[in-house]
């Protein structure tokens, strides 16, 4: 007969749910602060399409024809024999 009395008692269940909710809130706050202080690093892979040609005067022309926007870039020109 005591079994009916045990099923009506919901006080322990509400404390467990409250504890789980507090734990989830603390975890979300910690994750938010972590992502604010340590954002993910930028992607190092840049996808660029460059077309090169030589004018009649002998000038080399490099033209950006597609891909990511180039804000900071360095152009290194070398000959096949290393000079």
Strand order in the sheet with the most strands? 1-2
Could you name the ranges where pLDDT drops below 50 across 5 or more consecutive residues? none
Average pLDDT works out at: 83
How are helices and strands ordered from N to C? HHEE
State the shape.
rod-shaped
Number of strands: 2
Largest sheet: 2 strands, antiparallel
Computed Rg: 32 Å
**SS element count, helices:** 2
Q: Could you tell me how far the N terminus lies from the C terminus, measured between alpha carbons in angstroms?
A: 97 Å
β-strand percent reads 15-25%
Judged by helices, strands and strand pairing, the structural class is alpha+beta
| Helical content band | 40-55%
Summarize it.
41% of the residues lie in helices and 18% in strands.
Strand and helix map with partners:
Blueprint: H1 2-8, H2 11-37, E1 48-54, E2 60-67
What key attributes describe this structure?
2 strands; 2 helices; 83 residues; two-stranded antiparallel sheet; alpha+beta; single chain
């Amino acid at each position: 007969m005591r079994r009916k009395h045990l099923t009506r008692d919901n006080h322990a269940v509400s404390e467990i749910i409250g504890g789980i909710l507090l734990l989830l809130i603390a975890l979300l706050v910690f994750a938010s602060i972590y992502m604010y202080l340590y954002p993910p690093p930028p992607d190092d892979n840049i996808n660029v399409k460059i077309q090169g040609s030589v004018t009649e005067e002998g000038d080399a022309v490099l033209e950006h024809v597609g891909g990511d926007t180039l804000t900071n870039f360095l152009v290194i020109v070398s000959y096949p024999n290393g000079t």
